[in-house]
Design a protein that fits this description.
This protein has 3 domains: about 30-45 and about 180-275, Phosphohistidine domain (Glucose Oxidase, domain 1); about 60-175, Enzyme I, Chain A, domain 2, CATH 1.10.274; about 285-564, Alpha-Beta Barrel (TIM Barrel), CATH 3.20.20. Helix content is about 45%, strand content about 15%. The protein has 18 helices and 16 strands. Strand 7 and strand 8 (about 255-260) form a beta hairpin. Helix 1 packs across helix 4 and helix 9 packs across helix 10. It is globular, with a radius of gyration of 25 Å. The N and C termini lie far apart (about 50 Å).
């Protein structure tokens, strides 16, 4: 007999004892919430990748090589067409749709470039010459390239999953099978997958109301695109793919909670509350301040001008390396001036972070040597130790773009560790006419000597993602260590408080620009610790503004004392 508390999906009978759904009704799964909002609806799982057939004897190597080329060309053409379609979808009335489409077009173009890589094609053709048929040659070539990326660690290791998607698409094309993609059932649903590729995420239709994946992390393309589109999303949710299609679930992209086996009444309540919350936040405007009027600047984290949105008070983190991640040649002074000026002309006050290269954000044009532990090696400002001309060119370009636009451009260096590094960076920036110079606090040593750093620079910006990683010796991209990377950890809050105390004593601003700044529950605590600004993804600004407006400064201080 069916569980009376569980809805019966049309066309389904009650769950059998051995079915994936059995025993899960009314249960709750948990993952990492990476894009806020709530949704409820039936699960539809991604179709599995094509099954590679048994190897066969190659009678005509030329024909197999031609099949390899044709499959890769088919995948490349499909991705470029998707990119063109995404680019045409820009221009949403509130900017959100435009942001998602811009991100999607860029990611799809980048994937098309990988599929069209001559080295990949040559490796597959070489595998044919070694006796493999076309599908297995493609499998071997993609596997080789994936292993190379995975061995590099950090950002490139996370991007290795992109090659799996391209491999599946190429093999499907070679076998004459339908290209893997997003289901289109003709009704709203929650997309569930082991993981989602950029091409899949970029191709989401309006019938997808939320995303849940078993793998992935907060820096994945799934997270980036979900936030850009305003879709609730949860990643690293163990057990989610065991649910059968049609199982009704709820998704909370803020807490990471996934409810299983909802009643019709529960579904209606989730949808109602989400709709009301979005309508309420849409009416939020004005500068950030507490209930008693204490000002807290609410700023944006951006990677390019495409990420700019109304409603914030400027840009607190301009990640300049995002403009050049895929470049094999160093961007020229003129290219950099144009890229920075595009942001400066539209954003007013902008805090520019100089290139944060290395570990999870490698820049090929730098030609840095592989390292056994890149997170502890040449990254951020440390690149200046081996390539000082790169920072000189960037500072020159930032200064020129600021002069040309009349913008209020602040500049800060990533991975500052000692007061001497802060002083050296400040001298070089000020020599170019950049008058507001700061340092990122991402290393515990910098937090412990925040007062000495502030003797050399004008402001500090705390990057909680890396500061957590180095404080707790926990890889920031490891979903299994989420508890150690929780920004509510008292040890991290004490380091933030030390920086804020130093800023108050020096009369200089101290902001937070990591993911923690966009958590509306944590925002009052950070303000209570003495932080003067919070910089976050655009989608987070309204909820943080509203939360701060509910607390006086004294209440924020009381919350901070409790959290520490």
């Amino acid at each position: 007999m069916a569980d009376p508390g569980r809805p019966v999906v049309p066309g389904e009978g009650p769950p059998d004892e051995g079915s994936p759904r059995a025993g899960l009704a009314g249960a709750e799964l948990a993952g990492l919430g990476v894009s806020q909002g709530r949704a409820a609806g039936p699960v539809i799982r991604m179709a599995p990748p094509p099954v590679l057939p048994s190897p066969r004897q190659v009678a005509d190597p030329a024909a197999e090589a031609a099949a390899v080329v044709k499959a890769l060309e088919s995948v490349t053409a499909d991705l470029r067409q998707r990119a063109a379609n995404a680019a045409r979808d820009t221009g949403g009335g509130d900017g959100t749709a435009s942001a998602g489409a811009d991100d999607a077009a860029e990611i799809l173009d980048a994937l098309a470039m990988i599929a069209d890589d001559p080295m990949l094609r040559e490796d597959a053709e070489a595998a044919v010459r070694d006796g493999l048929d076309a599908p297995h040659a493609l499998d071997a070539a993609f596997t080789h390239h994936r292993e190379t990326l995975a061995a590099l660690g950090g950002y490139l290791a996370e991007r290795a999953a992109d090659l799996d998607d391209l491999k599946h698409r190429a093999i499907a094309a070679c076998l004459g099978l339908p290209m893997p993609g997003i289901p289109a059932p003709g009704h709203p649903y929650i997309l569930v997958a082991e993981d989602l590729s950029p091409a899949d995420t970029a191709g989401l239709g309006t019938d997808v109301v939320a995303l849940v994946t078993e793998k992935g992390g907060p820096t994945s393309h799934t997270a980036i695109l979900a936030r850009g589109r305003g879709l609730p999303a949860v990643v690293a949710c163990a057990g989610i793919t065991a649910l059968a299609d049609g199982t009704v679930i709820s998704v909370d992209g803020k807490t990471g909670q996934v409810g299983v086996g909802l009643t019709d009444e529960a579904v209606a309540e989730v949808r109602r509350s989400d709709r009301e919350e979005r309508e309420r936040l849409a009416n939020s405007s004005g500068p950030g301040r507490t209930a008693d009027g204490h000002p807290v600047k609410l700023l944006l984290n951006i990677g390019s001008a495409a990420d700019l949105r109304p409603g914030a008070e400027g840009v607190g983190l301009f990640r300049t390396e995002f403009l050049f991640l895929d470049r094999k040649r160093e961007p020229s002074f003129e290219e950099q001036v144009a890229a920075y000026a595009e942001v400066f002309a539209r954003a007013g006050t902008v805090v520019v972070r100089t290139l944060d290269a290395g570990t999870d954000k490698p820049l090929p044009f730098l030609g840095l040597l592989p390292e056994p532990n890149p997170a502890l090696g040449i990254r951020g400002l440390r690149v200046d130790r081996v390539l000082p001309a790169v920072l000189d060119t960037q500072l020159d370009a930032i200064a020129e773009a600021a002069r040309a636009t009349g913008a209020d451009a602040w500049v800060m260096a990533p991975m500052v560790t000692t007061p001497a590094e802060a002083a050296g960076f400040a001298r070089r920036a000020r020599a170019r006419g950049l008058t507001r110079v700061g340092a990122m606090v991402e290393v515990p040593a910098a937090a412990l000597l925040a007062d000495r750093l502030l003797a050399e620079v004008d402001f500090l910006s705390i990057g909680t993602n890396d500061l957590s990683q180095y404080t707790f010796a926990a890889d920031r991209q490891h979903p299994g260590l989420a508890d150690l990377l929780d920004p509510w950890q008292p040890a991290l809050l004490k380091l933030i408080a030390a920086c804020a105390d130093a800023g108050r004593a020096a009369g200089k601003p101290v902001g937070v620009c990591g993911e923690a700044a966009g958590d509306p529950r944590l925002a009052p605590v950070l303000v209570g610790l003495g932080v003067t600004s919070l910089s976050m993804a655009a989608v987070c600004v309204p909820s943080v503004r509203e939360e701060l407006s509910q607390h006086t400064l004294e209440e924020c201080r009381e919350l901070a004392a409790l959290a520490r």
